[in-house]
Here is the input.
Amino acid sequence: MGRQEGRVHMRVTRNYLNGLLSGNNGIGGTDSLLQRALSRSSKSRKTNRTSLLLNSTNNRSKLLTQNVGSAMQSQKLYYNMKYHSGQVQEYAEKLLDSADDSVFAKAEESGDTSQIVAGIKGFVSQYNAMLQNLRDSDKRTDDQLLTQLNNASRVHSSDLRSCGVARNSDGTLSIDDKALSETDIDTLKKVWNSQGSFAGRAAIWADSVQSAAERNMDAEASSAYSSLFKNYGNSGNYFNFFR
Here is the structure.
């Protein structure tokens, strides 16, 4: 009986192994139990790898969007800073001009100060925009430039008031249109047409602001580029999932 039971047991074991390997047990007789198990395992690994790859790709896409968006905002700020500081210099140059065809020379000849008034209004508008750009920046050098400009306007606040231009508590300037248009040519010339005037000092600092904006633009562009590749490397790449 022992031998017979052993032979039966061996036949059952062989039959079970044959069933695992045989195609007769598959659906339609095409796959063995073992083959189907291996197939499911392979599909599961592929699904997991695909899921990881998609998640990583999505994360990198989000990171890319965030970095690019932040870089674009910074570049826009410093572009505006460069533009407004350049405009301050241009308006100051026209107001400081003492040539025969300057706005002051023409005003002295005609008695019409409208061009001077227009130049002062343009200067003040661009000056205020430049100050706002400096406040929006998080750079220490920009804070220092803002302080210097505020000091300059504080020193010349009395002169500015004499022609209808008031210094506000935040350093920006406000214009009383009526007072400015009624200011005589000599007062306008004293306040705006000399190198020691507020226009002259503001122009010098505006040149420094323009240079700082250009440096900031280059630094932000370089930083964003470096950050993208650094974060890409940390998050892995396509081939990490198939090693």
Summary: Residues 64-233 form one domain. The first strand starts at residue 165 and ends at 167. The first helix runs from residue 2 to 21.
